[in-house]
Design goal:
globular; 5-stranded mixed sheet; 125 residues; alpha/beta; 41% helix
C-alpha cells in the first residue's frame, strides 16, 4: 500500500509515509482512519521521501478538498512534512495554501528535524 501510517495515542502522534504514486482514495482512507481513531488533534508527521509527488495541481486541489472535508469543525494538530526535493516542497506549499485548517505546519528535509519540531510542541517522544 503506497500510504502507510501508525497512530500512537500515548504520544498523541500520527506518522504517515507515502511510497510511489498515491491516489486520492488512499489518502482518503488514511484520513478516515485518523478521524475514526480520534487522532485529528494529534501531531502528524508525513514523510514523503519515497513518494515522487509528480502530480498535477488538480490532484493536489482534490487532496486539499478531502482534507478540508475531514477537518471541518475539528481541532487539528500540527503537521510536519518531510519533503526532500524542491518540487515536493513546492507541491506541499501549494497544498497548504488550499487547506482551510488553522494549524502549525512546517516542511523539513529530514525526519529527525520533523520529529524534533513536533516534540517541541508536545507531540511524540
Amino acid at each position: 500500500m503506497p500510504v502507510s501510517y501508525s497512530i500512537s495515542h500515548a504520544h498523541r502522534l500520527v506518522v504517515a509515509s507515502g511510497q510511489g504514486e498515491i491516489s486520492v482514495t488512499e489518502v482518503q482512507q488514511a484520513l478516515m482512519a485518523i478521524v475514526k481513531e480520534n487522532a485529528v488533534p494529534y501531531g502528524k508527521l508525513l514523510d514523503m521521501t519515497y513518494a515522487p509527488l509528480a502530480m498535477r495541481s488538480a490532484n493536489i486541489r482534490l487532496f486539499a478538498e478531502r482534507v478540508n472535508e475531514f477537518n471541518r469543525g475539528k481541532t487539528v494538530g500540527p503537521l510536519a512534512v518531510v519533503a526532500p526535493s524542491e518540487l515536493a516542497r513546492e507541491m506541499i506549499t501549494l497544498f497548504d495554501s488550499l487547506v482551510e485548517t488553522e494549524r502549525p505546519m512546517k516542511i523539513f528535509t529530514s525526519q529527525a528535524d520533523a520529529r524534533a519540531w513536533l516534540a517541541s510542541l508536545g507531540y511524540g517522544p
